[in-house]
Amino acid sequence: MTVDIQNRLVKFKDLIPSEVPFVEGKLKGHQDRSNYSIVGPGVSEDTKQSVKIAEEHGFNIGAVRAAPMNGSGLHSHTTAEVFLIFSGSWRFYWGTEGKEGEVICNAGDVASFPTNMFRGFQNVSDQDAHLFVVLGENDPGVITWTPSLLKKAKDSGMVLLDDNSLIDLDKNSIPEGKSAIKPIQDNELDKFDNYTSEEIEKFVIRAKDHDKYLQDDGHFNSNTILNYIDNFKIHEKDLSPLIEHNTGFGLTLLKGENSHIHPYTLAESEIFLCLEGEWEITCNDQKVIIGSKDTFSSPKNSTRSIKNISGKDGSVFIVRQKN
Ligand SMILES: [Fe+2]
User: Taking the model in full, what pTM does it have?
Assistant: First the structure.
């Protein structure tokens, strides 16, 4: 059977975002944002969220656009959450009141946040900005919000139900047989982990430090590779990761004007996500081209190769299911 690989190409401009993806969606600082589900549904609470590629990959990929001083409120995940900054500057803050620490990340930076901690983020640049998020596992579970965020959301008319769906009380009432989710109790807040800014900084790999981390794969000096998470095996190479988080997926950046990887076959799911430039991917003898913010999903067991065709520097993220 021939798979039409064009169906696995996701042009960012064709995506349909949710404008009220979460319970906080009407609150100041959270209302001017768009949520995109590219691979898997992610953790969106909007039952109408459009999901571009539903096939299970072992991880989920989504994106966020936010206006200046907008972003996500304090929440915790049960699986890994890795942020890929595409544009602008983003402030990440954490702790049950959001005051334990912060890091500011800029375009090209990658930040991996541990599970079981409350984190939020906001666009602190002066124009709209984008970041991408990789969440662990096929089902990344549901978000836990801080009790104070759920209370503020309720005052704005938004209620999260026990089936993880949203109700806008201005438009609907809570359906028969369903009820609002119970906020966690104050004594349960102690079960969440605490981190200093220095501790989280270790899980941030900054674009300005790329030269420190780049590994050459030895292929005519044309490929530079930054391997963030999990070992990256390519041809006879096996590169170790910069961040020691067990996320269930691998994350790698391929960079350089003449960068390319010759054909290889992989049994696992693999995603190419373009940060910069233009990349041609050949997969089972069919070709696709991805530009900035576009995604391509290689089918399992397919033979694929990739090359930078932009004639200038470029970079592409590779997200791989861990075997
Ligand atoms: Fe999150």
Answer: 0.96
